[in-house]
Amino acid sequence: MTVQLKAIKRYPVKGMRGIDMSEAQIKAHKMITDDRRFVIATQSSTGQDGVNAWARKRNFLQLVNTPKLTEIGTEYDEATSTLTILRNGRAICKGNLDQAMGRTVIEDFLTAFLKNDIAGSPKIYSVPDVQFGDMEEPYISVLNLASIRDFGERIVQSEIDPMRFRGNLLIDGLAPWKELEWQEGQTVTINDATFRVVHPITRCKATSIDPETAVSDINVPLMLRKGVNHLYMGMYVEATNDAVIKPGDELTIS
Q1: Which of 40, 55, 78, 94 could link 61 by a cystine bridge, Cβ 3.0 to 4.6 Å?
Q2: Which H helix or E strand runs over 228?
């Protein structure tokens, strides 16, 4: 059976919705361009010095501590680093996150939007040459859509939105959970891009939040443990060369 790359997603602002990409320029030992480039934090979570280096996700606003972020839609222009905030499909504000004025526009919206959900005023941070993945290493996440379908149909007995797991590369055509048999150091090839298999992704309670309703409705870690006796969904890989990939490209493992 052919294994195919179905979608490419990145999350320019950690904690906000993902953006579908029509193609991605993969660079060796880097995350996808602008993925988790920006973070949202308050002074109470980062201190007076703000954000100056990679830090663990608990320091930032994210779904597990601020589920209301799921209510915000986003668009992102890579060329200008401009983020557009959407509510019910309608653009309500936008700003260039590389400029103080643009960040202020987005921060002012977030301050009003999250006034009953957080303590302090949210600020947007970025650090040159730093991306704020859950791991400090520049890993890219791969999700097997068949595993997510099996988890939903057989274990949860409800449809599961892949957005819960915030993956970068969504693949299909592989048997459910087969990706967990990939061994560290094996090579995943998509078009001309090669990736080194790292390890499975352990899931936390943030995945229990419905990305459409912002309600914690399924205890995903518990259901994984009961249904398949582990806490994994997806695999981390690391890019080992420069190449362009697009949805529809085939994937092989060697």
Answers
A1: 40
A2: helix 220-228
| CA atoms of 39 and 247, how far apart (whole Å) | 27
Q: What does pTM read for this prediction? A: 0.94
Taking the C-alpha atoms of residue 135 and residue 168, their distance in angstroms, rounded to an integer, is 14
Return phi, psi of residue 205, to 5°: -70, -10
The fold for domain 3-30+135-253 equals: M1 Pyruvate Kinase; Domain 3 (2.40.33)
Instruction: Specify whether the CB–CB gap between 172 and 127 falls below 8 A.
Output: no
Tokens 């399924």: give the residue.
218
Q: Rounded to whole angstroms, how far apart are CA atoms 94 and 84?
A: 4
Per residue in 126-150, pLDDT (tens digit) is 999 999 999 999 999 999 999 999 9
Which helix (H) or strand (E) is 46 found in, with range? helix 43-46
Q: Where in the chain are all domains bearing CATH 2.40.33.20?
A: 3-30+135-253
Please tell me the distance from the alpha carbon of residue 126 to that of residue 93, in angstroms, as a whole number: 20
Q: Name every residue whose Cβ is closer than 8 Å to that of residue 112 and which is 6 or more positions away in sequence.
A: none
d(CA 195, CA 187): 6
Q: How many other CB atoms are found less than 10 A from the CB of residue 150? A: 18
pLDDT of residue 76: 96
Please list the residues that pair with 238 across neighbouring strands: 196
Taking the C-alpha atoms of residue 186 and residue 40, their distance in angstroms, rounded to an integer, is 35
